[in-house]
Amino acid sequence: MQSGRSLSTGVGTKSTMGNGDGHVQEVVKAAQEELGQLLRQRAAVMKRIGTVKQTIVGLANLFGDEVLSEELLELVDRKSSGRQPGFTKACRMVLMEANRPLAAREVCEQIEKRVPALLLRHKDPLASVTTVLNRLVDYGEAKTLASHNGRRTWQWVADPVDENRDSSLGSPAAL
Length: 175
Fold this sequence. Notes:
The protein is mainly alpha-helical.
């Protein structure tokens, strides 16, 4: 072509015009930086949500579900609505209520004890649980650790205790 542009034939073609490339690269770089910042913020928010949920679940375990409103029971996945809880929610609850890192097989066993019908819908429940646990890591809600025998385990992520706030409830502003 005579105009100084490459012929656009679809995916992967790039303009050879030099005038706008610098501005485009600036916009792309700014967008990339903003995306990175937003993803870090999301991870921090998910971690804080996990901590608050874990606190609420702990209080409900100590004092009974009746101390929680219906809305709060729903928010922490403890409301018995009569329907099957979601597979991801079940994995979350098992990790949240565990007092130690769990292997995928242990998460499967806990789900089987609580909601046996939930696993029946999955061809390979262990693979499904592993997939969900890895997604929870991606979301910033869980972390992976190596067990004493080198096997992978998962643990619910909670904020470290801040000495400036009540470790059981957090500051009202943070909630």
